[in-house]
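ESCALATION

Customer reports they have been waiting on this structure for their group meeting. Please prioritize. Original submission:
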Amino acid sequence: MSDKLNKDEIKKLLPHREPMLLIDELIKIKNLKSATAIVNVKKESFFVQGHFPDEPVMPGVLIVEAFGQAAAALTAAGIDKKTYENKLVFLMTVDKARFRNPVIPDCRLELNIEAVRSHGKVWKYKGEAFVEGKKMADAQWAATIVDRKK
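Update from on-call: job pushed to the front of the queue and completed.
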């Protein structure tokens, strides 16, 4: 497995598409353990027009969504392809989410995520979000692997 995935490779692992595919790259991948996701937050990002037009900020819920997408890509890239075939990763819980600083457009948001443990189809993760070394948010969450409806 590569230690990095570009957006096209991520699209092969996740069902998300524009505008909801938030992560642009997955780097520093340690198989089923950890990775760093890159989100290029732009002035053209879909959420900027309404949140908030005069002082745009990335909604915290989308930071959590990006954490979840990064974790799903890390898991999908690491498990056996036959095991993941026709499956999806669904967010189950979000715990201890903290938003410390606003994420404003024209920045590179780095999400450092870690798989804390897995039990069957349920995985627990934790992550921290940074812009230029400054912590913006952190959270813990759980996800499960489910059958894709055909």
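Sent to customer with the following note: The helical segments are 7-13, 60-78, 81-84.
Escalation resolved.
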